[in-house]
Specification:
The structure is a single chain. The protein is of the alpha+beta class. The protein folds into 2 domains: 134 residues, Response regulator (Rossmann fold, 3-Layer(aba) Sandwich); 235 residues, Phosphatase 2c, domain 1, CATH 3.60.40. It contains 12 helices and 17 strands. It has a 5-stranded parallel β-sheet with strand order 2-1-3-4-5, with helices on both faces. Strands 6-17-14-11-12 form a 5-stranded antiparallel β-sheet, sandwiched between helices. Helix 8 packs across helix 9. 34% of the residues are buried.
Length: 418
């Protein structure tokens, strides 16, 4: 019982009334349950507010010098969390309403007050304080939690940015390595003459690659040109392209294999062995087309694995399709690639991967398609090669628009003169 009476002793109530008898009655009624302060004037009440942590202020309406409403107005900005009540027998309801609205009064109590009713009002006010404190506590906890989360996000973002910078730096370095393995513009010029090259990796590094060689050993005069599209994009595709370039160089320079079909068979077997595809059941590999121009034998031959070529001679356009056979993959060990012999006469030759024709774009977001690429090459093939490169790039960019690039793109074309 004693515990119940003292459970709100930490609640400080200030009662203001210019009649001391009213103050004594109030204090006698509530001093056992709450910590009660009394004042006979507004000024005395202000002094008490400065010295004690008052939670609830109850004031008479009419008082000399400063009215109860004026006292409440004084506390609005200075003590915003204070529960304010006005206790009066004043009958002017409109004045009371204005006071309630202006002073943020929690409760308007009429005189003479009933102890039980007033105690109930005070208990509700205390519950309001408790809920307000709880709300502020939760808000502060949320604020601290939010601050902590923001800090963690900043830390993680900084870590991710540092990691991303390292990854991008590594990829840029890989790009330089890959570009060093590709034929330079000068090497292309010396090997196949004037040419057009539109090479656009989807990511920084590419799964597409091109390769040329001019073989003059033992009186030979052979030009070998390769365009390939490896499995994957970005770093995985680039790693596969390095395997492909190494195998082609080994076939052409070390083994002196110059027949296009045999070159593809060598690459196919090399991929299977190097990637241990019979053990891993891997399907990684590439699509490629190999062209060999033998000037001494006056012979042009071509072989492709899922890639072909486009030739234009005597004003006629012909699309040559390679074997429907991928290069590499555990099921392709016995793969063979059919060779196509071309007439030894002037012609334009274009080797390309499927990146251009598979690009989505246009008004309907559809693929560019092979027939449109063929028509584009036919339209531009008589133009200077530098202008052809500009037209290919402009057409691709205009078609793609804001859509992402879906694949690596390579188009390599030149004019053959016997």
């Amino acid at each position: 019982m004693q515990e119940d009476r003292n459970k709100h002793k930490d609640i400080h109530i200030l009662y203001v009334d210019d009649e001391e008898s009213n103050l004594r009655i109030f204090k006698t009624a509530f001093k056992r349950k709450y910590t009660v302060h009394t004042a006979t004037s507004a000024q005395e009440a202000i002094d008490i507010l400065k010295e004690h942590p008052i939670h609830i202020l109850i004031t008479d309406y009419k008082m000399p010098q400063m009215s109860g409403v004026e006292l409440l107005e004084y506390t609005v900005e200075r003590y915003p969390n204070l529960i304010r009540m006005i206790l009066t027998g004043f009958a002017d309801i409109e004045a009371i309403v204005r006071a309630v609205n202006k002073s943020g009064i929690y409760q308007y109590i009429t005189k003479p007050w009933d102890r039980g009713e007033l105690e109930m009002i005070i208990e509700k006010a205390i519950e309001t304080l408790r809920l307000r404190d709880e709300r502020e506590r939760l808000i502060e906890e949320l604020r601290q939690l939010n601050t902590s989360l923001e800090e963690k996000v900043r830390e993680r973002t900084a870590e991710v940015e540092q990691l991303l910078a390292k990854v991008q730096s590594s990829i840029r370095y890989a790009q330089r390595i890959q570009e060093a393995m590709l034929p330079s513009k000068q090497e292309l010029q010396e090997t196949i003459g004037e040419h057009v090259l539109f090479y656009r990796p989807r990511d920084i590094v590419s799964g597409d690659f091109y390769w040329v060689a001019h073989k003059t050993e033992n009186g030979e005069d052979k030009t070998i040109v390769v365009v390939a599209d490896c499995t994957g994009h970005g770093v995985p595709g680039a790693m596969m392209s390095m395997v492909g370039v190494n195998l082609i160089a080994q076939a052409v320079h070390d083994r002196e294999i110059h027949a296009p079909g045999q070159i593809l068979s060598f690459i196919n077997q090399g991929i299977i062995e190097r990637l241990r595809q019979e053990e891993t059941v891997s399907r990684d590999g590439m699509d490629a087309v190999v062209l060999c121009i033998d000037r001494k034998a006056q012979k042009i031959s071509l072989a492709g694995g899922n890639l072909g070529a486009l030739i234009i001679r005597r004003g006629e356009v012909e699309v040559l399709k390679g074997s429907r056979q991928a290069i590499g993959g555990y099921e392709q060990e016995e793969a063979s690639f059919e060779e196509i012999n071309l007439p030894y006469e002037p012609m334009h030759i274009y080797l390309y991967t499927d990146g251009f024709q598979d690009q989505f774009g246009g008004e309907s977001g559809k693929r560019f398609y092979s027939k449109n690429l063929v028509n584009l090459i036919e339209e531009i093939h008589r133009q200077p090669f530098a202008m052809q490169a500009e037209r290919l790039a402009h057409t691709f960019d205009e078609w793609k628009g804001s859509l992402p690039q879906v694949d690596d793109v390579t188009v390599l074309g030149f004019r053959f003169e016997p």
